């Protein structure tokens, strides 16, 4: 697809995105008890290690809600942290993983059937039926999109031409795609700029006290063949479908300053 056509498609979708702010479902999460996101107080280097002073101050959250578990080894631990400043949202995933696996190297491909870190963000505290999605595998291959829930009679609509620039780095403690040995795990850092969200209307600024909605996910693939993965999430998934894209399953985050 050439640049002009892609741009027209994105612009055309803005109308749909803005309308998504007017007809939305309730969130599961409560604004009264949001995840507190500390402001970074040190320079951030995105190298996959998350060893800056600011990361040491951030609270770690585990992904305790699992989907598609078939055996005990499918439940591997994940530690998630998040920070902010006026220009970026910073994300850290530290994942236990005995069998590190990734295949996809094409942007906007199926990274979600690899070992993969995902973040879905709604840059607003309002009831909205859309979110920005970022799904990264261990090659730092990106599947990024704008997801709109219940936009037409067929169901959901996904804008795949959304390809913003952001920083990602991975650190691997083991061997990728080699199940002859036991690995220890991997970690990933992301820095997503606030400018990545400027394509839609009422975007809440990155500032102290602001509230956004989000879902954080890990996809865990332990088998070299096939596409079976186990998903784990920061918030519980309700309903029969246990849909990670359903905004009723999202929680809230609030940007705060670090205490001195």
From TrEMBL:
Gene3D superfamilies, per database record: 2.60.40.1190
From which residue to which does the signal peptide run? 1-24
A biological-process GO annotation: carbohydrate catabolic process
Alphabetized, the UniProt keywords read: Signal
Q: Which Pfam families match?
A: CBM9_1
What residue ranges are annotated as transmembrane?
none
The family database entries (SUPFAM superfamilies) matched by this protein are listed as: CBD9-like
- Every copy of the Carbohydrate-binding domain together lies at 46-256
Q: What GO terms are given for molecular function? A: carbohydrate binding; hydrolase activity, hydrolyzing O-glycosyl compounds
Protein name from the UniProt record: Carbohydrate-binding domain-containing protein
Source species: Saccharicrinis fermentans DSM 9555 = JCM 21142
Classification from the root reads: Bacteria, Pseudomonadati, Bacteroidota, Bacteroidia, Marinilabiliales
């Amino acid at each position: 697809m050439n640049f002009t056509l892609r741009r027209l498609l994105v612009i055309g979708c803005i109308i749909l995105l803005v309308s998504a702010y007017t007809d939305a479902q309730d969130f599961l999460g409560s604004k009264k008890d949001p995840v507190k996101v500390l402001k970074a107080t040190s320079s951030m280097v995105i190298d996959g290690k998350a060893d800056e002073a600011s990361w040491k101050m951030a609270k770690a959250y585990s992904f305790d809600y699992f989907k598609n578990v078939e055996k005990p080894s499918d439940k591997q631990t994940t530690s998630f942290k998040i920070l902010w400043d006026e220009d970026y949202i910073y994300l850290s995933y530290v994942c236990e993983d005995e069998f590190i696996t990734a295949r996809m190297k094409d942007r906007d491909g199926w990274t979600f059937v690899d070992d993969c870190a995902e973040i879905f963000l709604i840059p607003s505290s309002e009831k909205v039926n859309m979110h920005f999605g970022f799904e990264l595998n261990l090659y730092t291959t990106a599947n990024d999109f704008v997801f709109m829930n219940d936009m037409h009679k067929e169901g959901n609509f996904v804008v795949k031409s959304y390809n913003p620039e952001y920083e990602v780095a991975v650190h691997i403690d083991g061997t990728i795609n080699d199940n002859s040995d036991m690995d220890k795990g991997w970690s990933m850092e992301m820095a997503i700029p606030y400018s990545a969200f400027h394509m839609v209307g009422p975007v809440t600024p990155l500032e102290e006290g602001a509230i956004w909605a989000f879902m954080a996910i890990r996809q865990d693939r332990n088998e070299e063949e096939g596409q079976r993965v186990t998903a784990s999430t920061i918030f519980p998934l309700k309903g029969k479908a246990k849909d990670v894209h359903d905004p009723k399953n999202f929680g809230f985050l609030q940007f705060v300053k670090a205490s001195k």
